[in-house]
Prior knowledge:
Layout: E1 2-6, E2 12-16, E3 20-25, E4 31-36, E5 43-47, E6 50-54
Antiparallel strand pairs: 1-2, 1-6, 3-4, 4-5
Amino acid sequence: MMIKYHYPDGDWCYRALHAAHAVFHDKDGKLIARAEKPTGDGLYEFEITGFELIGPGGVYT
C-alpha cells in the first residue's frame, strides 16, 4: 500500500504507507502530514492539500 501526497504547488509524491504517521489540521487550518524521514532518523511535517491511498495492482496514470 502506498500513500500519494498532493502538495499546495500542484506537485505530488508517493510514500510507503508504513512511513506515514499522521494527517491533521494545524491551528491555522492547513492540512499537515507527518511522516518518517527517508533516512529513518525521525519524523518531519509538511503541508499537503490531500492524499490518496494506492492499493496493490492499481495502474495510475
